[in-house]
Amino acid sequence: MPNDTNPAPVTEMGLRSLKLRPGVALQTQGTAPGAAKFEAQFLAAIEGKGVMVGPHGSTGGKSPLKAGDEVTVQGFTGQHAFSFTAQVIQTFEVPFAYALLVYPKVVKARLVRRSMRMKTSLPAKLALPGGSSFIDATLIDVSPFGAMVHAPTTVGAIGDLVNLAVGIDFEGEAVNLEIPAALCHSHKAEAGDGVHVGMSFKTVSQRDKLILHYLAQQSTEQA
What we know:
Radius of gyration: 20 Å
Distance between the termini: 28 Å
CATH class of the largest domain: Mainly Beta
Number of domains: 2
Number of strands: 14
Strand content: over 45%
Low-confidence stretches: 1-5
Helix content: under 10%
CATH superfamily of the largest domain: predicted glycosyltransferase like domains
């Protein structure tokens, strides 16, 4: 099975298998050399008929795409990174701006995560590599296989082992989780100070797996 640290191979699959939801962020780019990239969003699709793509975060204006353009579309579902190439059938401005693309026969996709990461916001602590000290952090998304935290500073190098400690309310009972994890990536937070640190869980007990599934499900229902 692929995980957050060992990339899975690229495979071909049907667009429908991705189970895209309206609003998923996309990037479109013409296939001609030097073509500009445009931020977009998935709106809807009818299998075998077409794919509706609109400007990102906008319900008005004009689509930057033109009828007859050949474009490459890229996106991320939360589990799969995917791309496909399609021709623009037509563009519309009423009742809102969007472009209708030819429905792709296949989509190239790579499984990035075995499970969807669900957004949350919980206080956490990270035992730094070597276990000599702790830093306060915030758990910002989680799945049974990994998590991301917001930390005030860089935690360690990619591949370093840390210990994630977080307390949750498990069906009315306060429960403390302590999970060993390997650092996968770290980047500066888009807003404010600090960094976002991604990690892949290592040995997880059956009890902790159950609680992580519960936490992810609770985050989904609240969203």
